[in-house]
Amino acid sequence: MTSAPPPDSPSPGHRSDSAPPPGWGNPAVRADRRLVAMLQELRVLQTGVQIVFAFLLGVAFTPRFAQLSDAQQDVYVTTLLLSVVAAAVLATPVALHRGLYRHPGKERIVAVSVRVAQVGLLLLASALTGAVLLVLDVVLGTALAVPITCGIALIFAVLWFGLPWAVRRAATRDGA
Question: Residue 128's closest CA among 69, 73, 87?
Fold first, then answer.
């Protein structure tokens, strides 16, 4: 009867030194890892886009939709279109990955995909903010909906764009 190795011991086949697996320093392998990680992140975002889009589709078919003001209907249409475009833009890195599978310029594909994903985040933040504005305007009125929605937009701007920029800047400054 053999006993199991202690929990802190390396598993069979595990390298005990902290060196990365062979090939990980290769730019093409590194680009593959970055692209796979980004595609996983985009899967999570796509769920958010689908939820807001489904909500917006349902709104148009409710009896109360006809009671919305022209301004509220404009917010609705703009938000619906933002959510559709966000879905298309956030799916673009997947299409690039599929369309250029095994293409030698993987680093360029990753660079383009990162920029496209950033635009998709901006569109998604705009669509979510628009949905919040629409709901709050109907429920609370314009006077409360606008400042609350501005706060929501600020939260998106800080968390999704400002924070990554600040962390990147600090890491560059520190030489990391």
Answer: 87
The answer to whether 128 touches 160, Cβ cutoff 8 Å, is: no
pLDDT digits (tens, 9 = 90+) for 144-155: 999 999 999 999
- Residue 49, burial from CB neighbour count under 10 angstroms (0-12, 13-18, 19+): buried
DSSP code of 62?
S
Q: Which two tokens stand for residue 3?
A: 């006993």
H helical segments located in the chain: 27-59, 70-99, 106-140, 142-156, 163-174
pLDDT (tens digit per residue) in 32-54: 777 777 777 877 778 888 888 89
Q: What are the tokens at 120?
A: 């998709």
Task: Flag residues of the chain having pLDDT under 50.
Answer: 1-11, 13
Q: How far is CA 30 from the centre of its chain?
A: 21
CB contact at 8 A, 68 and 105: no
- Cβ atoms of residues 79 and 136 within 8 Å: no
